[in-house]
């Protein structure tokens, strides 16, 4: 059976990987899985790359649907990711009880780390909203991906703070990186990103790809995603 290629946003990495593995095992279909940031997904598909299945935020899916690049009726909702505050494992963990507590925590950090993905773009706007961008100055560190945020925090001691998708934070904690989740952003400034899956039109394996997208939206799949921080 021909191999399927899945290209996915990184925030849902743990859940997608588990569901792809289960699908491949049950159906006997080999699947190649790759991840990228939301801007990276856009760049790759704009450059002519066509995976069999795409996992991405709804706004990008809307664009692809209008362009006729998605198999009709294959688009499904997977879940929502929230942004959390990540600190070094040796850092005293202050509760992120409200916006003022968050503001104090960020203002006192040796570094505030964000990425270039959609969640990182939101963090940049949040720092502006909180009046911290100029105050922090060069202490704002911009890295490529969510995993890079956690690695930076782990390598730069107890005073560095990262803002990243909770699902990505959990993955690196499980891998043994010396970091902790201090808590989600307060509700008043929380950013929620939805993720969907769809089969890409014009591929030889459209039927199998649509089946895989549907498989990732079953009740069993939702339980898997919930366990990885996607609700």
Number of strands: 9
Proportion of residues in extended strands: 25-35%
CATH class of the largest domain: Alpha Beta
Q: Please tell me the total number of domains.
A: 2
Give the name of the CATH architecture of the largest domain: 3-Layer(aba) Sandwich
Mean pLDDT: 94
State the shape.
Answer: elongated
Strand count, sense and closure of the main sheet?
A: 9 strands, mixed
What distance separates the N and C termini?
33 Å
CATH homologous superfamily caption of the largest domain: Periplasmic binding protein-like II
Low-confidence runs: none
Number of helices: 10
Fraction of residues in H or I helices: 40-55%
Encode the helix/strand succession as letters. Answer: EHEHEHEHEHHEHEHEEHH
* Helix/strand structural class: alpha/beta
What would you report as the Rg, rounded to the nearest angstrom?
18 Å
By CATH, the topology of the largest domain is: D-Maltodextrin-Binding Protein, domain 2
